[in-house]
Amino acid sequence: MRCPSCRVPFSSPPEKCPKCGLTLAELDRKFGIVPLYSRYLTDRTERLPLRDATKLREALQLFGRKFPQLLFSVVLIDLRPRAPIAEYAFWLINRACFSEFQATGPRNFELLLVLDPGAKEAALMTGYGLENVVAEEDLAAALNAGQPGFEAGDLAGAIHSCIEFMTRRLREIGQRSALDQTSTGPAAIEETAGQT
Length: 196
Fold this sequence. Notes:
alpha/beta, Diaminopimelate Epimerase, Chain A, domain 1, four-stranded mixed β-sheet, 5 helices
């Protein structure tokens, strides 16, 4: 886990960052009221055509059927005044409760992709329950998979690339866990049989 502001690493969620002092209360003051959002896809920029938005929701729902213990949500937002997108994504995944109200702390098995098309920035976060399963390098690689689409202005294609990368990576993690026979509890990633 890293502070979304100064990027200092720490092993468990502290009340405030040990280096820069950032707190969720500070981010609450900065970002205000949690905006209205949907479970899978929220486009507050209105940049996605309806057809693309529909296909993305279907892709995110398919991801949920493959990995029923996880929830992958995507939010497109225009952050003005400009704010670090990692701070916004960190705040949103902690405050929005995309899956359910009780899914907090170590029970939060969410993936959240936040895009600011105007600033050409993106952040991909995991809930605390996935931090021991999905490495920071995996999140960076998923964003890199979507980068050509981001740069070309193909938001839907970029998001699809991120979803596809995370699907492949989670399959690899699940297969490795099954071989190691060391995964226990809900953090073990399992793909539902019969899904492609």
